[in-house]
Amino acid sequence: FIFYAGICSALKLTVPSHTIHGIEGQPLHLTVDYNFNATASEIQIIWLFEKSQSNPKYLLGSVNQRVVPDLEYQHKFTLIPPNASLRINPLRISDEGNYIVKVNVRGNGTIAASQKIQVAVDVPVTKPTVHTEPSSGVVEYVGNITLKCTVDRGTRVAYQWMKNGKRLYAGPNYTFS
């Protein structure tokens, strides 16, 4: 991971700087670290989730490591002490969006910092199915044959046709659509 640090009044919050890709059905860790050069009587951590064009939803929060989850999500999201990392388990397509972490440190005064982490959910590609038209095949040098390849599920699917281990390209004998 490449890390980006946001500094706000001597409170440093470190989060991954690029989109985090998780796999549907698997757990995902959002690694967040914080440090500050002040004496603290209370440390509060808040996690929110936002999809585009919707208000952020509260997931969980903690004060001095005592976690207060939103009861709707209490079995899905876990705060991993001593830092502010979040565990999502299991990851679903609906979990794609922005996760916002906010840390408040109270000492003489209160210092705060927040960061946003973008999460993308990948669905594993299922085994491809190939259909032949006509199903009887063709006689050599007579007519055309169409091969159709499909997958039932998967994100960011790319198709590539091979013959004898070598990639096929469009030309007089092959057309792709």
Automatic annotation (TrEMBL):
Q: State the compartments where it is located.
A: Cytoplasm; Endomembrane system
Domain of life (superkingdom): Eukaryota
GO cellular component terms, alphabetically, are: centrosome; Golgi apparatus; midbody; spindle
UniProtKB keywords: Cytoplasm, Disulfide bond, Glycoprotein, Immunoglobulin domain, Membrane, Signal, Transmembrane, Transmembrane helix
Transmembrane ranges, per UniProt, are none
Q: Which SMART domains match?
A: IG
State the InterPro entries in the record: HEPACAM_domain, Ig-like_dom, Ig-like_dom_sf, Ig-like_fold, Ig_sub, Ig_V-set
Name the Gene Ontology biological process terms.
centrosome cycle
Quote the SUPFAM superfamilies the UniProt record gives: Immunoglobulin
Q: What is this protein called?
A: HECA2 protein
Name the lineage: Eukaryota, Metazoa, Chordata, Craniata, Vertebrata
